Amino acid sequence: MKTLIVYYSLEGNTKYVAEKIAEQTGADLLCLEPEKAYPTGKVTKYLWGGKGAVMGDTPELKPYTADLSEYEMIVFGTPVWASTFTPPLRTFIKKHKDELKSKKIALFACSAGGSAEKCFANLQEELGCGEIAATLRLTDPAQRQREQNHSEIESFCKKMM
Questions:
Q1: What angle do CA 88, 91, 95 make, to 5 degrees?
Q2: In degrees rounded to 5, what are phi and psi of residue 56?
Q3: Beta-strand relationship, 134-139 and 73-79
Q4: Are the CB atoms for 156 and 22 separated by under 8 Å?
Q5: What is the mean pLDDT of each run of 10 residues along the chain (161 residues)?
Q6: Per the count of CB atoms within 10 A, which of 34, 81, 86, 92 is most buried?
């Protein structure tokens, strides 16, 4: 099954997981980049990123190429911001909503702590899809590389296939 991983990563955690999933599945990667980058400073990151996530912002994205008709499965990856997914994913989903309806979907999220369940529920609602093939939540996986993370990623990959 041809798979595309669509993700946004501010600090590298989501990118790390996307690359690990791609290594195990042979999936293609699409990193979303907003035209105006989000700040990475501790306070400003939470203020601007969290506000944008809660308010449902849809930032302009840098140009990308992805023909969704080539893929049977789309895996979405996001950091958890204010208990939800990031605005760049919202922009992508809104642009491709009709194309995504026929795809098998899997979700993964990276957070500094706490639950990703609300994030997954919000993503599923935004996608307007029924069943999600697999979900994965990891805590700061790029900074805290542990054997458990690798086994959870491997299990996620098996579930989504």
A1: 145
A2: 75, 30
A3: unpaired
A4: no
A5: 96 94 98 91 69 84 95 96 93 95 95 87 91 93 79 94 81
A6: 86
